[in-house]
Design a protein that fits this description.
There is one protein chain. With 649 residues, the protein is α+β, with helices and mostly antiparallel strands. The chain is globular and about 75 Å long.
């Protein structure tokens, strides 16, 4: 039964609301678990749906308890639904982007739209994988879905054709742990154990789908099928995808983008804009959201607006690598400069998906620059404002020596764009990766052109600072090393860096833009017990004698959390990477994850332990996944998976 919630203070809840847990039946008899926040009266209102693999009664409960009531208090039925086989939903777990999961989502949309408290209009939102799901569902049900808000949509597991190492095994481990967790007997009753065993027996890690050779990732080709507001932070890997969504706004639907100084997720600062978006498309209220700029972005110290994207105020400027940018490295015996990096280049890259922790941001890049070949500009005579997607055109000779063996092995190009202050501090602005495929049929040593697309940048480089382009042939632990360590040769005279420069007077006479943080409800209180021996967020170790580098990561989710309904959740995770300086095939990655769920009042006690290990040889990725499940300390289930995935198609 719906239960009324107390009114919030201030602007948080203009209307009294109620919360209700319900089950949504699907055509095959499976029931998905849902939680609905809506106005207390029964007048029909639009539905806002967040459809996710997160568990709404524990993992996402704190975040849900702020955002969904806020939307409900502004006149919406805000709904969280767990995917099939996750949380307290029925059925068996599978890939959240599979056709079956999307078909379930379309059915959920139509069933919610038919509820008496729904006006028949639906909006979709989510961040990360759920943000990608929202875009795909909208394309499948555009007659019912009127608008989408996507935040940091997932960009897949490849970058520039290279396979990501950063977080891939950790995400596999967390995905297994999430799918292997039992339903909660408080919400599903005595059937929890049978449901749990069925889930465990159906588990299949998506290793082949994630690591199999492919062309450009499908998420990079996502488009907007209905009016879409896209949100991202500059440091998030989704930022380039968000700008490309906006660039495709010549399609028959409006797209707007908001890019700010945020970590991964849907930031509180963006919520007022999302509400104006919903009110315009779901309630026919003229909120002025379409009269504003197509892109609002944070550029170093202020918010800037561009009415169109691509913006007429942004022009490409070109820096030749033998003129405006010059290398201070040792000259080669011909016009080609050799780039050959130690395998631990990339240790200071920061987190691939930043979550707002201090160690997530890339640190001073001087150490990385020392492991790379750098091309520096002269001190800038005036500020340079960057906004958009830099690119790099290179004339290459893979291997740098012209050997046929090096030529056939492929390689890796990593480009970093940095802002160098007068005291030498090097701040990362943008980076890009390109995997060079094997080049059968091309004469050994024959030069070839390659283009590296760098990540989106929004930054003002002050006058007196220098631009630095740093090139390397390795980027661990972000990218899996290529089998050979020969690097590549570069002809600076035929290589060019292209930067998107925004006119310094673009905002002259414009009303200053602001982004206002709303007053949100207080989240549910979780009593947190920190580990007695907390591990550092990010720890780098150098074994000098073995020439080995190790990185260990420990997430902020470690510790014990007691929920208001009595659930006790104890979670621990450690991710480790290792590589030998001169041995690319020595790279290894491993994540160990453990989660214990208890309800002491009824004697319910379950534990799930998962582990994923990745390494590679010259031709294959070698993956080992493990799951163990315990009930009251006794082993209930265990299984191992072993995969060998070809590195090249």
């Amino acid at each position: 039964m719906p239960s009324p919630l107390p009114p919030a203070v201030g602007r948080s809840h203009p209307r009294p609301i109620t919360r209700e847990d319900l089950r949504i039946p699907l055509s095959d008899g499976t029931e998905l678990y849902a939680r609905v926040w809506r106005p207390l009266d029964d007048a029909p209102v639009p539905v806002l749906l967040e459809y996710s693999a997160g568990r709404l009664t524990d993992w996402t409960a704190a975040e849900d308890s702020r955002r969904h009531p806020w939307y409900a208090g502004h006149g919406y039925a805000s709904v969280r639904v767990d995917l099939r086989g996750h949380g307290n939903s029925g059925g068996l777990p599978g890939d959240e982007h599979s056709e079956a999961a999307l078909a379930d989502g379309v059915e959920v949309i139509r069933r919610l739209a038919a509820r008496p408290w729904c006006s028949g209009r639906v909006g979709l939102f989510g961040h990360g994988p759920a943000g990608t799901t929202a875009l795909r569902l909208a394309a499948l049900a555009p007659d019912t879905v009127r608008a989408v808000v996507t935040a940091c949509p997932d960009g897949g597991h490849h970058l520039g054709g290279a396979v990501l190492a950063a977080g891939l095994h950790a995400r596999l481990t967390a995905l297994l742990a999430g799918a292997a967790r039992p339903p909660d007997p408080r919400y599903v009753g005595d059937s929890w154990r049978a449901m749990w065993l069925a889930r465990l027996n159906a588990l299949e890690p998506p290793v082949e789908a994630w690591l199999a050779p492919r062309g450009p990732d499908e998420p990079a080709r996502l488009t907007a099928a209905v009016p879409t507001l896209a949100v991202a932070g500059w440091d998030d890997p989704s930022c380039s995808l968000v700008l490309r969504l906006l660039d495709e706004s010549a399609a028959p639907v409006p797209v707007r983008a908001l890019v700010g100084p945020w970590p991964h997720g849907l930031p509180d600062d963006a919520l007022p804009d999302t509400l104006r978006w919903w009110d315009h498309w779901l309630k026919d209220i003229d909120t002025g959201i379409l009269a504003g700029p197509a892109l609002r972005s944070w550029i170093s110290t202020r918010w800037a607006g561009d009415d169109l994207w691509p913006s007429p105020d942004v022009r490409d400027i070109h820096y030749g690598l033998d003129g405006p940018l010059r290398s201070a490295g040792t000259a080669s015996d011909d016009r080609f400069v050799r780039v050959r990096s130690p395998q631990h280049t990339g240790l200071n890259a920061g987190a691939y998906v930043p979550l707002g922790r201090p160690a997530d941001r890339p640190s001073d890049q001087r150490e990385e620059d020392g492991r790379s070949v750098c091309f520096d500009s002269q001190p800038l005579p005036e500020p340079l404002e960057l906004l958009g997607l830099p690119s790099l055109r290179l004339r290459l000779r893979p291997g740098g020596t012209g050997s046929g063996e090096a030529r056939s092995a492929g390689g890796l190009i990593v480009a970093r764009l940095c802002d160098v202050t007068p005291d030498g501090t090097s701040t990362l602005l943008s980076r890009g990766v390109l995997a060079l495929p094997p080049s059968a049929g091309v004469p050994a040593g024959a030069p070839a052109d390659a283009t590296v697309e760098l990540s989106a940048a929004g930054h003002t480089v002050p006058a007196g600072h220098r631009l630095r382009l740093a090139l390397s042939s390795a980027y661990w632990p972000w990218i899996w090393p290529t089998p050979g360590a020969t690097g590549f040769g570069l002809d600076p005279s035929r290589s060019t860096l292209t930067l998107p420069a925004r006119h310094l007077a673009a905002d002259a006479g414009a009303v200053p833009l602001t982004v206002e943080r709303p007053a949100l409800p207080e989240p549910i209180h979780l009593h947190v017990t920190e580990p007695l021996t907390a591990r550092p967020e990010r720890l780098a170790l150098h074994d000098i004698g073995r020439h080995e580098w190790r990185v260990e990561l420990s997430p902020a989710t470690d510790g014990t959390r007691t929920h208001p309904d009595g659930l006790v959740r104890d979670e621990h995770s450690v991710t480790a990477y290792r590589v030998l300086t001169a041995a690319p095939l020595s790279a290894q990655a491993r994540t160990d994850h453990s989660v214990r769920l208890e309800r002491p009042d009824i004697g319910w006690d379950t534990t799930v332990q998962t582990r994923t290990e990745l390494r590679c040889d010259a031709t294959h990725f070698i993956v080992h996944c493990h799951v163990s499940a315990f009930e009251a300390g006794s082993l209930l289930f265990t299984r191992d998976w072993h995969h060998r995935i070809p590195r090249e198609g």
